[in-house]
Amino acid sequence: MYRINCLNPIADVGLKNFSEQYEITADVKEADGVLVRSASMHEMELPEKLLAVARAGAGVNNIPLAKCAEKGIVVFNTPGANANGVKELVLAGMLLAARDVVGGIDWVKASRDNADIAKAAEKEKKNFAGSEIMGKKLGVIGLGAVGVQVANAAVALGMEVYGFDPYLSVNAAWSLSRAVVHVTNIDDIYSQCDYITIHVPLLEETKGYINAVSIAKMKKGVILLNYARDLLVNEKDVLEAIQSGKIARYVSDFPNPVTAGQKGCIVIPHLGASTEEAEDNCAVMAVQEMMDYLENGNIRNSVNYPACDMGVCTKAGRVAVFHKNIANMITKFTAEFGQKGINISDMTNKSRGEVAYTMLDVEAAPTREIVEALEGIDGVFRVRIVKG
Predict the structure, then answer these.
(1) Tell me: the pLDDT tens digits for 14-54?
(2) How far is 312 from 330, CA to CA, in rounded Å?
(3) Of residues 277, 286, 267, the one with CA closest to residue 16
(4) How many whole angstroms separate alpha carbon 346 and alpha carbon 173?
(5) pTM for this model (two decimals)
(6) Disulfide: which of 85, 253, 310, 386 matches 278 by Cβ 3.0-4.6 Å?
(7) Which strands sit side by side in the sheet containing 2-6, from one edge to the other?
């Protein structure tokens, strides 16, 4: 029996995917797996028996990734599950910025007691008119699940789209419209685009990705959109650029004291992935990832361990080893099995940065003795019997 704890409410459509081998527990200390959305886990004491954390969403800045990796806890996210919801709000943000719809609505509200409001509107509407997005140049920084959908949708709306992503995946490349111009120098986006939207993960090296230096390279009157993470943009630099006229509008999905209510800022209360459909999709994907890992040891969409898939184990046992990505580890593992007289029928080893993951299918049920022997090897974080 696997026990699952939900640190946040998770959509029932996802939880219903759990089989009879699973039960939901309110006590995180007895959980084999944790499902989470926005709850912070950084100050949380991670239970010794915890095997996996699945984030029902894309961002994982609320989870201590390195700490989990060292404990052999696999952290999953659900890339692409909420992409359509975010894409639609990015398009809405561009339209809100292009034409002062918000200002116009506010004027109507303020004029609600004016008996001649219709006549007055004909005089006032020029103040909110704006321009169309068709024919304008859009720069998409980051061509992951969301970025690709935004780029393709913008092409369909008649925009000239430029995309930048030095780590463009094969799947993303296949999904990307041929009309999107893939640039290799981000300065081409800064210097040419009327609209710029950022869709990269928040990492230490991407904090402040958009700042005074990059803003200086942009066209005067550019519209900047941020639906990824607020810390990707140095918002104080953005406010200065708005005051100088360099940036016409800043659209953000992350309310904070820096931009809330500021002139030139359209700040949305983090609605990007907050659709019923997106929450359902994320819940289903998170549960499926969790189940495949707990039952088979397979890793898909992890942010702290490499992808690894050996399917369903048909042998007597399967052992998973979490370890440092250093030389001679495989030799040491196989030697221990050889000494115990256990034959290895299949094996895979994958690495990601400083960590690695090895799965071994064996023809005899693994014993506690072999687990202790593997755990005693220098550089091993954790050993898990997946089957046996």
Answers:
(1) 999 999 999 999 999 999 999 999 899 999 999 999 999 99
(2) 22
(3) 286
(4) 33
(5) 0.81
(6) 85
(7) 22-24, 2-6, 33-36, 52-55, 74-76
